[in-house]
Amino acid sequence: MKENAVYYNDYLQLQQLLNSQHPESFKEGNTPAHDEMLFIIIHQSYELWFKQILFEVNAAIDVLNQPSINDNTPALQTVVHRLNRVITILKVLVHQIDIMETMTPMDFLDFRDLLRPASGFQSWQFKTLEAKLGLPYNERYGKEYYTSQLKQPEIDIIKQAEEEKSLLYVVNKWLERMPYFENTAHWEEFVHQGESTPDLHPYWSTYRHCYSHSLAEAERNNLQAFNNIFIQGQTTGQLSAKASRAALFIMLYRGYPLLHLPFELINNLLEIDEQMSTWRYRHMNMVHRMIGTRIGTGGSSGKDYLRAALDKHYIFKEFAALTSFLIERSKLPALPNALINNLGFNI
Amino acid sequence: MKENAVYYNDYLQLQQLLNSQHPESFKEGNTPAHDEMLFIIIHQSYELWFKQILFEVNAAIDVLNQPSINDNTPALQTVVHRLNRVITILKVLVHQIDIMETMTPMDFLDFRDLLRPASGFQSWQFKTLEAKLGLPYNERYGKEYYTSQLKQPEIDIIKQAEEEKSLLYVVNKWLERMPYFENTAHWEEFVHQGESTPDLHPYWSTYRHCYSHSLAEAERNNLQAFNNIFIQGQTTGQLSAKASRAALFIMLYRGYPLLHLPFELINNLLEIDEQMSTWRYRHMNMVHRMIGTRIGTGGSSGKDYLRAALDKHYIFKEFAALTSFLIERSKLPALPNALINNLGFNI
Amino acid sequence: MKENAVYYNDYLQLQQLLNSQHPESFKEGNTPAHDEMLFIIIHQSYELWFKQILFEVNAAIDVLNQPSINDNTPALQTVVHRLNRVITILKVLVHQIDIMETMTPMDFLDFRDLLRPASGFQSWQFKTLEAKLGLPYNERYGKEYYTSQLKQPEIDIIKQAEEEKSLLYVVNKWLERMPYFENTAHWEEFVHQGESTPDLHPYWSTYRHCYSHSLAEAERNNLQAFNNIFIQGQTTGQLSAKASRAALFIMLYRGYPLLHLPFELINNLLEIDEQMSTWRYRHMNMVHRMIGTRIGTGGSSGKDYLRAALDKHYIFKEFAALTSFLIERSKLPALPNALINNLGFNI
Amino acid sequence: MKENAVYYNDYLQLQQLLNSQHPESFKEGNTPAHDEMLFIIIHQSYELWFKQILFEVNAAIDVLNQPSINDNTPALQTVVHRLNRVITILKVLVHQIDIMETMTPMDFLDFRDLLRPASGFQSWQFKTLEAKLGLPYNERYGKEYYTSQLKQPEIDIIKQAEEEKSLLYVVNKWLERMPYFENTAHWEEFVHQGESTPDLHPYWSTYRHCYSHSLAEAERNNLQAFNNIFIQGQTTGQLSAKASRAALFIMLYRGYPLLHLPFELINNLLEIDEQMSTWRYRHMNMVHRMIGTRIGTGGSSGKDYLRAALDKHYIFKEFAALTSFLIERSKLPALPNALINNLGFNI
């Protein structure tokens, strides 16, 4: 073959990649523990994929961070496509836990002590990913603890990510720019239902009316939560009322062609949370099965941290909460034709 | 074709099977909700598989319930094979949640009210399965509540199952029959380590010694739990100390050919719990995504019950707990040759 | 509970459903073969899901069969959503083969002879599904053979399906209605490249130019195939040249918001073919592993039929073939703004 | 933290690992193609896992290559465990194709030309793996072709692997050592059926009798194939008649405790072939979907090679073929008690 041609082995830097596994137990003076090789390679595989996920998430943020997205370009489809890939990767990462589970507790104990205090808890790429998705420092379980085992260069990377715009941040801003309710001409023929409220767009007093009638007796409490956001305009978490309204509107009328991509974007956020939560759940079970009440290499009982992170680290939970405010498809307020015909978000 | 030949359509009773879907919303006076068909068929598919799982679990119980299992027959392999199939089915049932997730909340709300108070909580086959596996009535979350929505014939079926021998019961009995420690001739050349304890088999005082040395400083508390079971002989849950000792011994020496099937049996129990727990977890998330804080057809907020059942309904948790008492493979006490050569459980 | 309330057990017709399993080997005079229960239940589960898939495919055909689909309604999104569900179900059906594989050849042989000549080959729902998707009679492997083992009522159902409009038929018609190239005003500012061809829309002579330049030396043959369809206007299989042009245009400009749903529709067809082919492949391997060179209950060596069907029964292969006519994203002819601003297919 | 402590980032060599991605299209003068990063990382992930699979396969070969395996040690269980892990990894590698499928043909074309002639066909680790499992040079599709695109150092690695003992080789030797038929005392009470054959162990003439009666009319040809191996003693492929007999015996009496691990070993070989074949199948479909009839970076139409390799590169096909020689479980010749009681292969 030609000497200057691209060669698989070099292109993928296999020389370097396949010489990056140096089990502690294989070093002189120790007893080789066969399974330490697996331990290294599975973690390396995770880190490679974390790099790819970060690459996709950053690309998605860059697109959404433009002052306005022109809906006459493929910009939004690109964002949805990037996040779809993230979800596909996360599903494989969940599956990959099956491989870790082929390591028995006794085989793990054979090299555990050699690794202290290194642990998966030191994966700065994973913490960076959480930050870039939108997990703020003050919602982390254990706050300072989460960087306590890292060295300064890795802490800096995470802190840097926390200061940059997150996916959640740019999605919120993008939702706020949605002009569904602004052009009064679009709404002239809208059929109002129920009581109107001063200073409130007629759509929302109508929808409150429909929502209220859709609630079963035992669900009446939901109305207060609804009012807080959609009538009073409260911010929930990192989601402004304006963004909440746009998001709920998108969820309700997702069937309209121009709302399909926006809906997929929101749905992808929920799917990312679900896959990350499934990963945390299976990881927690795997750790429990591996070490029981013994402690991991990081010096803590992994299960407790993982359980707490599982419950607390839902990043897009405000979007998930909007589900409670949906109603029957058959009871949806009809949109006026003028709006339907102009259902573009950037016209 | 011959008239008396078996015919696929009749053999599978497809006439009957494919005419068992009668959506409420399709009935006169209602508005047909397309997704109700899916709702029916997925539940029917679950119930078909629950029947198959019960068929396998009952077959496994029957084998183990024999006064003694002859290890010179394929009996134990049959049990392991049956439970392997149960696990394979459970994995598909977990995957099947993906199908349910294609139903959006708004499509569900379109027929939810027509179904009250029917709900998956009335699946008497699932509750029967929990009972046959070994979940006792008094460990159920919500106790009486769990049958409150059922009619008497279905309650009777569950109560009957609770009175019969469960898989956990017969496994405990089978473990108690294991004769590893009974033939003193087998143990004559065993090298004792550490302090011996009167009336305690030398293996266990030795293993306590090894276990104690294997514990990190932060794990010292584990020794008390170890002593309770393996030295003092306490029963934990439905697992007697004798059975716990046999089970831990099997887990420690699983590599020996005759201990391989017993180990697979124990491992299958853990895998069943893990798959059922994964199912509960994904089911809970799916319900949450479907109805949020609204209530299900059964009249309750499904998520709370499901969360509680998730945490509480681990059936084989005493086996899972044994993991905490394992040590490094390289530090295992060597078994005497006389025992190794006779490592049959029925000699 | 109230007597007239909907009750899970009745709603799902469990009485009937769970009493539809009557293994031949359990009948008097035969030796019960434990695994025949599994054999029945897995086939019943497949048939339940085939019913659901047919329900979804028929619903999708009904929408697309309307004289025109109004893009200002959720109609197209409904079609995409229905087909997405079909794909999700097919993935579970592929996974379900894992369950069948827990049946060993020896356990199958224990009841095989009792079932003759019944076989999965008699699944009239599956053949109906192939027909409704668009597999024409004259492209079936074995033609008459494929109904030779069925009784008249089931043959009638399949023949009826073959006469009705298939999904492929209505998609072809829907693509032909796409007005991308008809409004000359939209194309006034289009920058033509390469030689123009009389009576040919400037877009296609331009794209031929780009495509030709994109081909590597070894790919020059592709140009003839391209010319046949896009320049000469040949029909390929059941796909007219007009529909082929619309489909390729959609694949090329999928990023534009209004082309996103049409692209997803085409992509779903390919995904359905891929899942059905994966199912056939795994099914074939499973049969081979189960019976080797012995014959199945249907009297034939299942593997040969399955292999032939695998190669021949791709229903949407003309869409798959369009992939060969794509070019680099960066080399795409730019669309004129007038078109972009009106990229609706029903204006 | 302590300076000399093990640190996650260093232990996993993340500095090096995460700096091994240098997309050609990102280099000066080229237009960055976003998806090339994915292309690199997924191939790197595959190569990492190939390293791990080779590590496990080599470890399994080392154990089986011992002159005799003592069945009173965990040796065989270790082999089974290693191969189980290989299967689990292969399943994830199959799943990983989902990630590759998120790359569209147009995105691939954007950097394809920059990579020539590098291609996955140059994965020397994969070819080494095929060789170590047991694929001989002269059964490769395309023979010389398979190394034609490699440089000498990588060719040497593969050639070296072809000269070493493969998994198939050591399994064949291990099966030949099985002493089931050698101790005449074990067989004294065996009930012979059918005609006996001079110089043939009575078990095999009996089993031929049972097998012959188990065949349906259309299966009579199978008897010749049976006679060739089990009566005449022909070698098939790399499997000697002696090994074939031991393997079939293990498959028939797998339920006996001491035959369970040997059966699992054989079954794992079949499972490895099935997963590799599923990988090839999905990979082929993916390539077809990506490039259609255009050519890959390696200069060939990938699909043809992949299809041929799919059909030809079954490594353990002689084991798969044994399935054709099984009979109903209920018709199995009963083993004499003396044998059952001594069913150890190394006593």
TrEMBL record, chains A, B, C, D:
It catalyses: L-tryptophan + O2 = N-formyl-L-kynurenine. Pathway: Amino-acid degradation; L-tryptophan degradation via kynurenine pathway; L-kynurenine from L-tryptophan: step 1/2. Its EC number is 1.13.11.11. Heme binds at residue 283. One of its GO terms (molecular function) is heme binding. Its cofactor is heme. Belongs to the tryptophan 2,3-dioxygenase family. Heme-dependent dioxygenase that catalyzes the oxidative cleavage of the L-tryptophan (L-Trp) pyrrole ring and converts L-tryptophan to N-formyl-L-kynurenine. Catalyzes the oxidative cleavage of the indole moiety. This is Tryptophan 2,3-dioxygenase.
